[in-house]
Every structure is written in C-alpha cells, then in structure tokens.
Amino acid sequence: VADDVSPTGELNRFGRELEVAVVLDALADAGLSLADVDGVCHPESAVGFAEYLGVHPTFLESTMTGGSSYEVHVEHAAAAIASGVCDVVVSVYAATPRSDRTQGRHREWRRPAGPNPMAEWDLPYGLRTPMGPYALAAARHMHEFGTTSEQLAQIAVSTREWAAMNPRARYRDPITIDDVLASPLQVSPLHLLDCCLVTDGAGAFVMTSAERARTLRKPPVFVLGAATCSDHLVIGQMPDLTTTPGAVSGPRAFEMAGLAPADVDVLMGYDSFTITALLHLEDLGFCKKGEGGPFAADGHLGPGGSLDMNTNGGGLSFTHPGTYGMFLITEATRQLRGECGERQVAGANVAVAHGSGIFLSVMSTAVLGTEATL
Amino acid sequence: VTAEPAAPARFEPPIGVEAGAFWEATRDRRLLVQWCTACDRGVFYPRVFCPHCGGGSDALEWRTASGRASVYAAGVEHRPEAVGAKFSAGQPYCVALVDLEEGVRMLTNVIGCPPEEVHSGMAVRVTWEPLSDGRQLPLFEPAEAGS
Known about the structure:
The complex is a heterodimer.
Chain A: H1 15-30, E1 39-41, H2 46-53, E2 59-61, H3 69-82, E3 89-91, H4 97-102, H5 117-121, H6 131-145, H7 149-163, H8 177-182, E4 187-188, H9 210-213, E5 222-230, H10 246-257, E6 266-269, H11 274-283, H12 292-297, E7 308-309, H13 314-318, H14 325-337, E8 350-357, E9 362-369
Parallel strand pairs in A: 1-2, 1-3, 6-7, 6-8
Antiparallel strand pairs in A: 5-9, 8-9
Helix pairs in contact in A: 7-11
Chain B: H1 20-26, E1 32-36, E2 41-43, E3 60-64, E4 68-77, H2 80-83, E5 93-100, E6 105-110, E7 123-130, E8 136-142
Antiparallel strand pairs in B: 1-2, 1-3, 4-5, 4-7, 5-6, 7-8
C-alpha cells in the first residue's frame, strides 16, 4: 500500500503524476514492479489508466460506487485472482480538490485523468470516431497482408444473408460486393456498408448459479470460459494495428473452457465494421493471422458456410445502438436454446460472444455452452 | 455590433500537464520527443514516468526530433463535415499514424499531396500549421516535396 497526504491539506502534485506515484510506491512496498501488474482498477477509466501505465491487463475494473468504490475493487479483485483471471491488481485513487481551488487549476484538470489524450493528440487532426481508427487498422491490414476491399465487403454480404432470416433485423434485402464498394466512402478504405448501423436497441440478461438455472423456465446456457484483455485506449497507442487484444482474451477463454475454435458452432463476433470481424477471425484462431481476407472471400461465413458468424445479422445489418455487445449474448443464448427459427444453427452447443470495446482497445471473450457441453 | 471571432479551423488541443514543453517548442517549429534516459527509448504521448521501464520523471528529458517519419497507416476522411473539420475547406483529407525516426508513433495529417496517395511506408517530414494562440500544430508532408 501507499498513500500521499499532507498536514497542509495540499499536495504539490496532482492528476496522473499523483496516481502514478502512489501506484509505484505501493508496488515498491510489495516488492513488485509494473511488469507484474495484470489487473487495473480505476474509478473513472481502468482502460485509460492502464494505457498510461503501459500495461496490458486481463482484469479491468471501473466500478464507481462513490466512496465505497475501493472496497468494491477489493471484492472484485479477490474474486478475479481466486479464479485465475489475473495475478497482481493495482487500485488507485487521487484527488486534489483543495489545491485545485487554491492553484486555480483548469477545471478539466481537476479530474485525475487530466486532459483526455484523445483531445490533445487525436482530435486536432479531424480523426472521426469511431470509424477513423478502424479505417487505419484496415489500411494497415491491407498493407501487411494484401487484404482487399472486396474481401472486407464479403463480410457485409454474408452478414446480410443472415439478416435476411431475422424478421427483426433493420436491413434484410440482399447486397452484393459491388453494392458495398459503391456505397460512399466514409474514412477510406471503409465504405458506408462496411460500417455498423445506428439504431435504437436494448437488451438484458440474467445470470444465476448452474443449480438454480436448471430449475428455471428456459434451458440454461452455461459460461464455459471468459477472458478479457486491453492493450490501449487511443489508436496511436495500439501496439500493432493488425492484432487486437483478442489474441490474448480468445485463447485464454478457450483454455478455460477446454475447447478450441473448431468446437464453436456459433461465433458472435462484434462487427462494428467489417475489419473488426475480420480481426476477430484471426485473433480468435478461426484462421491464421493475415488470412482473414481470403477466409471471408471463400464464403465460410454466410448461411451454409463452415463458420456460422453473427447469425442475427450483426451490427452491420441487425442493430447497433452504440455498444452492441449485449446483443452478442442474447443471440448466442437463443441459438444455444434453439429459439432462432429460420436462422437456427442445427445442433448448436457452443457459442462464443466476443465483444470489442472502444477502438479495438478492449476485447472480452465469453465461451457459452449447453448442458451437453458440461 | 462586434464581429464574432472566426471559429478555429481545427479543434485546438488542450495542453496536458506533461506536455507543456512540447507545445511551447512548437512556437519555434521544433518537434520535441520525450526520451527516457534509463531505457533509451522515446515516450509518446508525454507522461510523468516511462511506461517502458517504469523510470521516474528524473529519467525523462526532451529531445528535438529530426522531423523525419514513415507512414504506419493512412486513411482518407471523405466527409469532413461529419467531423466538423474546416481545415481542409470541405475536401477529403488524410489522417495517418506516422512513426518518427525516434521510434514513437503519433497521429497527424499528411498534406502536400492528394490524400489518397498517402500509404504505409511512405517517407514524410514534419511541417507546421499555426494555431490561434501562437502554438503550431505538427503536420507531415511527403519527404521529397519542395526542399
């Protein structure tokens, strides 16, 4: 542990400097260093603080319950460590309301995080979010692996084929690769039909113990494995634009489940953009790194293909209110219960809900299964 | 009736507490990179400590960058109005990540050539655009241009 206070009631440092100082002091107190840290708790943004620290945590905790936040972090970190999610967690708090007032510090800087790095280093250049960072990832993937706009377009086409079988999808009319390429460029190389929708939407799920779930109204769906990883917040800090932290969360979740990509019957992979889905295919191990383009172009992804992906029509054609990850879980659950009608994947026993957060920043993988998988 | 001040053509960056020296140097069109003397690596964006090695602020110094860089990834914004960006006069513009010779990566605009011609691996060099408060914003242009 470490803390920093003064009888004067004021400290001579604030914001990130103060946060980093107490974290490093606490680690030193424990005989550890930042290299040991794989869990980060921060009451505003664990993702942003982890990026600042330069660590790539598998446990991120930003629960904010006011003054009790840090006791909640103890509880959640203990559960995470006990279940093998992570090994070394840091939780931090820093606030300087007194010196902010006496020093007349800029209002924005009173927040521990200080100015958002995105405001200082990205927004002046007219980076449009969310599509700008994804366009850069697509451009880099094209440069390194020869991926084409046609291959990305095939993902939108295959996903629309699934949407055609979902009466609740926003768009159901078939599209072609030419339609995607003829749709207006947004941030090149991404076209309008490479991008997810903007719709209204809402979802919820209920979790309980396996024992209790078996007594309830619907067949239970079991969490076989789950894992998360973050390696940046803003796109300029992403170590490699062609590899997401899903390359960590995916294998960890499969290992926990004792399963492999070949065992998956339904992949719900967050398709904010076609490039997002392509990166999931590679990082989760459904194809090799760099081969996502040919894999999509070979028709593996639509109805009747070798990999049933985004069977509800995805963020590209079904719905996308902003943070679509909830709908990965509702569709995966319904597929495993056999409730999907025309688009039902026969004999679906294993489904993966793979969520993508912010700008390819945080990936979280949940491997779900029916009773038959236990 | 007093004239409204013209709205800046760009979103003008706030100055982070770690980046005062960086922005001050831009007034003289100098591109600074924060450098960790403990592990001999560049740090961007600027921080109060080194995220590579955990080195403290006493290990960090500012070095003047050469201004030479290589494009890591580039895209073209085709709807400037959707971003509220006025600096391109409504025309498509290039947003790129560039790798400075000093080993750090930053977002920027590459100007001085048609935006769709900017590509990964392209050699670029720093150029500057004035902000309203006397600071200058680092942009990049093809390395072979002008000179």
